């Protein structure tokens, strides 16, 4: 026959004889596959009740409960806004996340969706491994949109140079949790080949990022991004590409010097997916040690305060260029020997920053001779970041 828990008993197996001293054992039954005595059932029940009561009390005492968001109710915006405010004000949310983060990282060696935990404290973005079902079609759409931007700029006598940033998992595979799937592993080469076939100038950053001297890392261990040293060799490679395929007036005519700041701990953007809260320094991977460089001009300032602003190069892209910690724009100024407008924006992917720049005042009032488009390869096949998401 079958008990209430669904655990089968043999019909012809006799029940074991018990003595009065074995009353606790005799009263035990199988419940969800676990033998539990009556006293333990009470312990579980009381504990579960305490959790329910605590959660209910915390919900009632949440200051967000009586407040109503101003978003519309009909399209679901109100519910999303209320959930965000409720979670932010919940006194149990942060401790619960930290507790689960300790279990998730310490016991299972993994983090929240968004990060992949590699070896020796290396963290990788899950986005680098993700591809849409039709990766080849997504790459073709990406190439077509980039080529259309190149054509539009060419009509205004402006050269476009695409600086294609390779995935960290492709450049530092020895610490990765798994090899990149075929569609992601072949993505960079397909982009370079098709872009060049479409007439787009591409700076292939794989060789310089793979060849830093003395084992200097090109990518941060706990971050998605490159190190300042990686950004510097990438800038030198981009400058060589421009010198060969898109030289401009003023190339190499200004002088810059880069100096390193003091060394400090840097907790990368991927550590937030570990949910370790204040215990991150003790239970998480060691922090990266980072010295932020700063580049300054060695030339005297122009005396004409009201003259036209002439900056020959514009840098458009993502947080690889926008975050001052890597000094990508400064490294480009020094490598090119020319001033650079930094129009990169963090957190928006590669398409939206380009749209904003081309439609913005900086492009209209100070037309560059060259536009550098820093473009991380993963966005070519990342769902939700295709060229169709930006209305040009």
Describe the protein's topology.
Blueprint lengths: L22 H4 L2 E3 L2 E3 L1 H24 L15 H13 L3 H14 L8 E3 L5 E3 L9 H20 L4 E7 L2 H4 L10 H4 L1 H11 L3 E4 L1 H5 L17 H18 L10 E11 L13 H4 L4 E10 L15 E4 L2 H4 L5 H9 L3 E3 L8 H9 L1 H5 L4 E7 L16
Parallel strand pairs: 5-6, 5-11, 9-10, 9-11
Antiparallel strand pairs: 1-2, 3-4, 7-8
Helix pairs in contact: 5-8, 10-13
Strand order of the largest sheet: 6-5-11-9-10
What is the helical fraction, as a range of percent? 25-40%
Structural class: alpha/beta
Tell the overall outline. Answer: globular
Find the count of extended strands (DSSP E, 2+ residues).
Answer: 11
Entry keywords:
392 residues; 5-stranded parallel beta sheet; globular; disordered N terminus
Summarize the structure.
The protein is an alpha/beta fold and 392 residues long.
